[in-house]
Amino acid sequence: MQIKLEKLAACSALFLSLGASLGFSTATLAASASHSIEQISSQLAPSWKSMKPACVMALDIDTQMAVSDRLEFLDGQLVANRLNDHLSPLSSDKNKAWNNQVWGLREQLERSALSVEEREPLREYFFKLQTQTPNADRAKLVSEVQFMSEQLNITLRKELWKTCHALGFDAMPQEQLETAINQRWLKQKKKVTRQLNRELAAFYFYSFRQVQNLELAVLAKTAAELNPWVKSTSEAIETYFYQVRTQLLATNLKQDIAPVTTDETAFPNAQTWNPNASKSPF
To answer: pLDDT tens-digit profile of 109-120?
Structure first.
């Protein structure tokens, strides 16, 4: 049992629709590794909830009936506290960049851009960027600032996508499964990455629209100093999902429910009458 590619293609719009909720909502970062981990972990459950219907729809009918136990398992694993606990060793990162005062400005600007009254201007700004090319120097700085959010979010999205693909597979060696679902992810990677990059770029360009390049360069330099932590955290997220998929394969697909049968013979039970002819009363 496995996901049918044609059905998954029909559901691709739903996968990509996670963009706005997963991109903009996780853009705000506080000046600590612990808070950043909480931010990325908080996206896990709502992202899985959004993706789950498409994951099921992509399966054939028989497999949909067989994955209920696996869905229940994933519902219990793809939640914030599980991922947060797994990433907790990284929450005590001692990189001095976390204490840089520029984080205060960054957080203030990002919170402002996420306010209710800024939603429509931010939406308009996103579409504006699709048709107008920003200054190359400024674009490079914004890219460096958004790297942390983009890298952590693309890792989370990738692992959710791969876990979705693994949902309907029969038991097989783990490495064989990982190879199969990674090959499918690579077919979607460029599209998903491009979409996420656009969303985050729009958010950061909008957040820092009144910040001069010199100040933006300081923000970019500070963010770049945390790239080793970002790499370690991304790898830890991958490890968590690998462990989840290991347990997922160990959760058996339900066997087909035996159809209800009816005995359609004329006399299914033993005869209760005397087969000998009755004597005539005459």
So the answer is: 888 998 899 989
**Local structure of 84: helix, strand or coil:** helix
Give the three-class secondary structure for 170. Answer: coil
Q: How far is CA 131 from CA 126, 127, 128, in A?
A: 9, 7, 6
How is 9-64 classified by DSSP, letter by letter?
Answer: HHTHHHHHTHHHHHHGGG----SSHHHHHHHHHHTHHHHHHHHHHHHHHTS-HHHH
Cβ atoms of 32 and 167 within 8 Å: the answer is no
What tokens does 64 get? 């949909």
In this predicted model, what pLDDT tens digit does every residue of 133-164 receive, in sequence order? Answer: 889 999 999 999 999 999 999 999 999 999 99
Torsion of CA 178, 179, 182, 184, to 10 degrees: -120
Closest listed residue to residue 198, CA positions, set 6, 52, 15, 23: 23
Provide the terminal-to-terminal Cα distance of the chain, rounded to the nearest Å: 72
Of 35, 17, 27, the C-alpha closest to 204 is 27
The tokens for 123 are 């939406």
Report the candidate in 137, 118, 192 with the shortest Cα–Cα distance to residue 162.
192
Number of neighbouring beta carbons within 10 Å of residue 117: 7
